[in-house]
Amino acid sequence: MTLTVGQSLIRVDAEAKVKGKAVYPGDIEMPDMAYMKILFANRPHAIIQRIDVSRAEQLPGVLAVFTAKDVPNNEYGLISPDQPVLCGPGSNKAHADHVRFIGDQVALVVAESEAIAVQAISLIDVDYADLPVVSDPREAMKVQSPRLFPDRDSNVFGHYRIRKGSIENGFKNADVIVEGYYQTPVQEHAYLQPEAGVSYLDEEDRITVVVAGQWVHEDQEQIAHALGLPLEKIRVIYPAIGGAFGGREDMSVQIVLALATYRLSQKGIRRPIKIVWSREESIIGHHKRHAYYIHTRWGASRDGKITAAEVELIADGGAYMYTSTKVLGNATLMCTGPYEIPNVNVDSYAVYTNNIPGGAFRGFGGPQGAFAAELQMDKLAEALDMDPVEIRERNILREGSLLSVGTPLPKGVSMDKVLEACALKAGWVRGARGWQRPVVNQPEQANKKRGIGFACAFKNVGFSFGAPENCWATIELRGKEEIDQAILYHAGAEVGQGAHTAFIQMAAEALGLPFEKIVLVASDTAYTRNSGSVSASRMTFMAGNSIRGAAAQALEKWKNEERPAVATYQYLPPRTTPYDPETGKSEPNFSYGYVAEAVEVEVDVETGQLQVINVICADDVGKAVNPQQVQGQIEGAVVQAAGYGILENFLQKDGLSLTKTLSTYLIPTVLDVPTRVESVILEYPDPIGPFGARGMGEMPYLPFVPALVSAVHNASGCWFDQFPLIPERVLEGLSS
Amino acid sequence: MSFHEIQITVNGVHERVSVKSNQTLMLLLRETLALTGTKNGCSAGECGACTVLLNGEAVNSCMVLAAECDGAEVITVEGLAGDPLQDAIIRHGGVQCGFCTPGVLISARALLNRNPNPNDEEIKEALVGNLCRCTGYVRIIEAVKEAARLQV
Lengths: 736, 152
Fold this sequence. Notes:
The complex is a heterodimer of chains A (736) and B (152). Chain A is an alpha+beta fold and 736 residues long.
C-alpha cells in the first residue's frame, strides 16, 4: 500500500508554465550578454580547403570568430568521437576538414547582437571541394561506394548477428512462409522549443552552460573532452526544457557555447554568451529517427506456431555515429517481436551516409523492429486463415520463454495478460476457434471503409547489452525532533515527461513524508551526481531505486541523531551483457514494459485520407507513480506515433533536406488526433522496480504504426510496407 | 533602419516604445519588454507558441510588425493571471513540457471570450494553430471544456 505513489498529484512545474514564468534556455537574459550564430556547412559532402574570417572579424560589433583551429580537441560523439566540433583545416584532428552532412558546423561568430552575428556569418568565405554524395545506405554498404571516413575500410560501422537454432530446419518445418520488404521513414522530433543556451563563467570560474538536454553529466563530459579541460572546470545546468523525445541526447549548442566562453575568457572577455537556433537550424542541426530497410522471411506451421524468422536490417546512420549502434541493438532484438521463435537468424547493419545523422527518438529502434515483426505476424495469420490476436497468443513471450538471444526475460513477464486485456477491450471474443476479430460497423458513405488492427510490443527499460548503468541520489533530512524538510539532489532531467514530480512522489513515499516537505535540487552538475540520461524509459525506474536507497540510509542516520542526516546512494541494476559476435547470445536487459494496441481506422478510398477513429492502448507500467501523467504519456505517444504513421514526411535528396519548416513537416494538430484514445493502465509489478514500477514513456509508441497498417488492411485489403500513409501512398496502394 | 515611436498597452500597462521597422510584436514583447512567457518556436507563424491577444484577437505575434501596433491593446500569458483556464489545464494534466502552453491558453481565452460555451469541434478549430508535441491534445481539450463550465 502506497500513500503518495499512485496519486495523480499536480505537477510541480505546472504553475510556472501556465503563468509564463518557467524559464527555458532561450528566455535567459543576463547583463552584458553577447550573441552567437553558427555557420553551417549546408552541403552534404566536401573538404574545406580554406576559411577566411577576416571580413567577418572586421565587422563592427563582432567580438570574435572561431573555427576548427580554435577547438582544443576537435572531436565529440556519444558512442564514438567521430564528429568534429567545427569542420575545417588546422585543428588537432586530421580529417576534421571533412564536411559529411548539411548540419556540420563550420564557424562561430560572437557579436554584440544577434543581427550583427548573422551579418558576420555571411561575410565568412569558405572554399569547399565537393565530394560524391552517398545517400542510400544500401549503396553505401557496397565496397565500391565512396567512403565518408577515409581511414575506415567500409561505411558499415555496426553489425550484429543472432543465430538461434537452425534456420534451415525452421523453414523445413514451416507450412507457410511469408517474405516482406519494409521501409520505415526518417522522423523529426519537432519539439516545440528549438535548441538554445547560455554560457558564462560562474562564481567558481567554471565554464557554465545552461541548456536543454537529457543528461547533464554526459553534456559535461562531451564539453570537457572537446575543450581538453578537466570535468570540474565545466558545469551544466538544465532550466525548463521544451520537449526532447531523444532529440536532445546528442550535442547541439553545448560544446560551441562552452568553447566560445573559454576562448573569449582567454582574451580577457568575460561576458555571457547566448545562442538560439531558428526552426530551420534545429531541423538540420540535430539527428533524426533512423530510416530502416528491412528484408525478412518468417515461417509458421499450420497450428500457427512460428518456426523460423530470418531478418536483415539496414539502418541509415547518416553522417556520424551518434547512438546508432545502440539503436541498432534494440532493433535487432525487437525485429522478431515479443514472440518465442525457435529458429532465428538476424543480421543488422548501421551504415554511414551523407544524410542527417540518425539517432535517439522515442522507442529507439523498437518502432522499426515492431513494424516488420507485427506485419509479418499479420501476414502469417492471413496465410493461415487465423485471427491476428490468436496467432500472437500462440507464440507470445511468457515467463521463462527464451528470447532470440537465447536467454529468458527477467521475471515479471506480462505480455500475455496485456495482449488479453487489449483484445477484450477492443471487442475481440474468444470462441471455439480461439480469438475472433470484432466486425467493424461500416459507415453509410460508399467511399469510407473502416477496419481494426492489432499489434503488440515489448520495450526495454534501462541501458542494454552491457552498457554501464547506474543512478545516484542524495537526500538531506533537516529538522530537530521532526523532519521539517527533505532535500533531494538528483540530476535526472525534466523534459516535460513529469520526471521531477515522480521523483518527489517517490521520495515522499520512501521517507514517509508529505509531498510538500520534499525540495528537489535537480539537473545541475555542481550539486547532483550522475543519473544517466532520460532515455530508454529508464528514469522513473532508475531514479526511484536510487531515491529509495538514499531515503533508507538517510532515515537510518536520522535515527542515529545525525543532523542534518545526509545519504548518497548509487543504484546498480542487474548486469546486462553484450551480443556475442557470432550467435548474439546475451542477457540484453534487466527490465521490460509490455504493450498492446488496437487501432480502428476509416479509409477514404476516394481521397486516400485516413481518420483514426479509436485507439486502445494497454500498457503494463508495473505501478503508475502518477496515473494522470502516465495517461498523458500514453496519449502523447499515440499521437506522436500517429504523426509518424500518417503525416510526417521528412524528405532528403542527395544529402540535402527538402523539409525545412513546420509548414512542410506536418506534425499532428488538434484536428489530426484520433477521435478517441483509451488508455488501459495495467499494474503487474516489476519485481525489481521501485514500488513495482516499470518504465513506460516509449512503449505506447511501438505498436501504433503496425496496428494502423493492419487496420487499413482490414478496411481495404491492401498491405502497406512503407509509410507514412499520406494520401498519395494510400491511393497508389489501393489502385494497384 | 528606421524607428517608430508607438504607444501600446500590454497586460494593462501603458508603454511608449521605439521599435524598428522590421521588429515583430513577438520580439518587442520578449526582448524589449522582457515578457518571455510568449514563446518563439518557429518565427514563421507555423507553431502558435507566440500567440497573444491583439485587440482581443488571437494572433501569432511573430507575424505582426510591432510598428503596426500603435494604440493597440495586447494580452500575453503573463496577463492571464487568475484565468480559470490556467487552473483547469493544470488539473487536467494538459501541461507537459509547457512550451506550447502560453499560446494554447491565449487561443483558448480568445475562444471563450467570443463563445463562452464551445463544443468539441469549436475548441479544436480554435486550437488548430497551436502545435503541441507532448500531450496528444486530449487533456487540453478537456481543460478548455471545464474552464468554460466554470466561467458560466
